[in-house]
């Protein structure tokens, strides 16, 4: 006699659905190319932001890698970067909101470039000393042309 399947959340699939497996396989074939393109875009943006007068500081391993992790622990510099806008939280929130191509949202590693202001989104309920600097913006660089991303950030920073 076959026992009926357990109802509700205890019931788990042991195998992925065929379409899901196919899409995963297909996506993994181009993953290295996408990651390299995203890293290259992040490196270009980090260099440009580091020279911008409205930016106080840029956090990306392509600029400073004091622990020497790139090449030793990391195969590349990554597609995530953070930068601090002069003027603090109000200016950072304004920059994030002024972006047209870059989406103001919380996520990581997708093909679309996203920007977020942690102090007003993900870290809003966090206690004062544990909060990131108010002027900090985080960017997850996607596959758009880095020059288009630079132009979008330039117009957003110019709105200050």
Summarize the SSE layout with pairings.
Elements: H1 18-29, H2 31-50, E1 55-59, E2 80-85, H3 89-98, E3 103-104, E4 114-116, E5 136-140, H4 146-158
Parallel strand pairs: 3-4
Antiparallel strand pairs: 1-2, 2-5, 4-5
Helix pairs in contact: 3-4
Brief summary of the model shown:
By secondary structure, the chain is an alpha+beta fold. It has helices at residues 18-29, 31-50, 89-98, 146-158, and strands at residues 55-59, 80-85, 103-104, 114-116, 136-140. A five-stranded mixed sheet has the order 1-2-5-4-3.
Description:
With 160 residues, this protein is α+β, with helices and mostly antiparallel strands. The chain has a single domain (37-158), classed as Aspartate Aminotransferase, domain 1 (Alpha-Beta Complex). Helix content is 34%, strand content 13%. The protein has four helices and five strands, in the order ααββαβββα. It has helices at 18-29, 31-50, 89-98, 146-158, and strands at residues 55-59, 80-85, 103-104, 114-116, 136-140. A five-stranded mixed sheet has the order 1-2-5-4-3. Helix 3 packs across helix 4 (146-158). The chain is globular and about 65 Å long.
What is the CATH topology classification name? Answer: Aspartate Aminotransferase, domain 1
Give the strand line-up of the largest sheet.
Answer: 1-2-5-4-3
Describe the biggest sheet? 5 strands, mixed
CATH superfamily: Aspartate Aminotransferase, domain 1
Instruction: Give the strand tally.
Output: 5
**Pairing-aware structural class of the strands and helices?**
alpha+beta
User: Given this structure, which CATH class is correct?
Assistant: Alpha Beta
Helix content bin: 25-40%
What order do the SSEs take from the amino end to the carboxyl end, as H and E? Answer: HHEEHEEEH
Low-confidence stretches: none
Provide the gyration radius in Å. Answer: 20 Å
Distance between the termini: 71 Å
Assembly type of the shown chains?
Answer: single chain
Strand content: 5-15%
CATH architectural grouping:
Alpha-Beta Complex
- On the 0 to 100 scale, the average pLDDT is 88
Shape: globular
* Number of helical regions: 4
Q: What's the number of structural domains?
A: 1
């Amino acid at each position: 006699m076959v026992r009926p399947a357990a109802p509700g959340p205890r019931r788990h699939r042991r195998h992925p659905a065929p379409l899901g497996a196919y899409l995963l396989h297909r996506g993994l074939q181009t993953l290295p190319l996408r990651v390299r393109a995203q890293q290259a875009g992040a490196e270009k943006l980090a260099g440009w932001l580091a020279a911008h007068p409205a930016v106080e500081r840029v956090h990306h391993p392509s600029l400073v890698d004091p622990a020497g992790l790139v090449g030793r622990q990391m195969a590349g510099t990554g597609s995530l970067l953070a930068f601090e806008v002069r003027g603090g939280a109000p200016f950072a929130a304004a920059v994030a909101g002024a972006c047209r191509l870059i989406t103001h949202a919380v996520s990581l590693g997708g093909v679309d470039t996203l920007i977020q202001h942690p102090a007003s989104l993900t870290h809003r309920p966090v206690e004062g000393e544990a909060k990131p600097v108010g002027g900090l913006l985080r960017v997850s660089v996607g596959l758009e042309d880095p020059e288009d991303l630079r132009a979008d950030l330039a117009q957003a920073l110019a709105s200050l």
